[in-house]
């Protein structure tokens, strides 16, 4: 168990224990005069404090109720700590060491153990496709790969922003092999179409599923899909599925998906993939999608042995997505966020280093290290059947968009 969490649990346990002792003591004091009164014992009749007994019972009752409330509060908190369902606040960071590691300081201390030789590689002749590469982590990763000579396909939804990014990457790296493709990753029809064309024109060694979003209200895409799910989960599924045959043709093919440590608070939920019921909480929907990306990676690793799959947490980095989707979090954290390049470091390492490919396929990484996909004692493990069912559901849904022609009815 992480040290901070252990400390928080111990604090809870000692409060629960001291309140429980107090309540037992108090009960003993209250039970004595009560039982004497009700059993007709005369012992108290001559006692000088006898008139004060009702007051004594009243005060004891109030203090007892207060202590019981505190006991219940601490028991609930203890349960929340163990299940990680506590609403995460920056002030709680001592209880969440994995969150502290996600800060800039976490990167700085982890990077002391990085081997610089891992990234001293020439990837000329290898082809990389990065979604959402016009800004943030995706653009930073694209630059690093371009610097090492790789051919980079930028897949972005906005032509103007994408062209600016391409210009910046070419100017800064001197690499002319940077290509632009305009695709909306929340639109499965567009993805299928793009992938079909891409397969006939290019080769692909490494796919980086980086595009992601956190939409805080329930909004639908033009195909009637919930936007977070469409971008983070279904988009990742369709693009990867469509490009697997191309990747399978290459040696040392890799697929890297940029997930988030936020997924640790979620157990896979396949009962409502598009969050159509209950209260919509964008942060939790995003975390659920990011959990789904981890499951996708694990499942692909089992079924496609010739490709190396990995999924990762970039830490908390100062990017447009964080500023716009989580303004309160950004205000509190802005001085301790990682740079975009620091957030992209593990993506680049997974994409280009030979060390990464030596590790088993299907793992979750933070700062160049495989890390667990569940927190200790958190009840986030799902039955294996659910993981396979998720793949079946995504396959079924994605196929609907493969065959849909313009003008066909919208899906779900
Ligand atoms: N920054 C962090 O602290 C952090 C932490 C954990 C995980 N992540 C993950 O890191 C990844 C990159 O995010 P970022 O922080 O670097 O934010 P960012 O700079 O805003 O990058 C997100 C990228 O995804 C693109 N995108 C979003 N929806 C898209 C769609 N439907 N089609 C095509 N592209 C789309 C955005 O394009 P536009 O510019 O057109 O919007 C942008 O290029 C995301 O998957 C995010 O969930 C980030």
The ligands bound in this entry are:
NADP nicotinamide-adenine-dinucleotide phosphate
Largest beta-sheet characterization: 8 strands, mixed
Taken in chain order, the helices and strands follow as HHHHEHEHEHEHEHEHHHHEEH
What name is given to the CATH topology of the largest domain? Rossmann fold
Structure description:
The protein is of the alpha/beta class and 412 residues long. It folds into two domains: 3-83; 122-403, NAD(P)-binding Rossmann-like Domain (Rossmann fold). It is built from 14 helices and eight strands. Strand 2 (151-156), helix 6 (159-173) and strand 3 (178-182) form a beta-alpha-beta unit. The protein is elongated. The two termini are 42 Å apart. NADP nicotinamide-adenine-dinucleotide phosphate (NAP) binds next to helix 5 and helix 10. Keywords: Membrane, Transmembrane, Transmembrane helix. This is Dehydrogenase/reductase 12. InterPro entries: NAD(P)-bd_dom_sf, SDR_fam, SDR_member_12.
Features:
single chain; 412 residues; alpha/beta; Rossmann fold; 8-stranded mixed sheet; 8 strands; 9% strand; elongated; disordered C terminus; binds NADP nicotinamide-adenine-dinucleotide phosphate
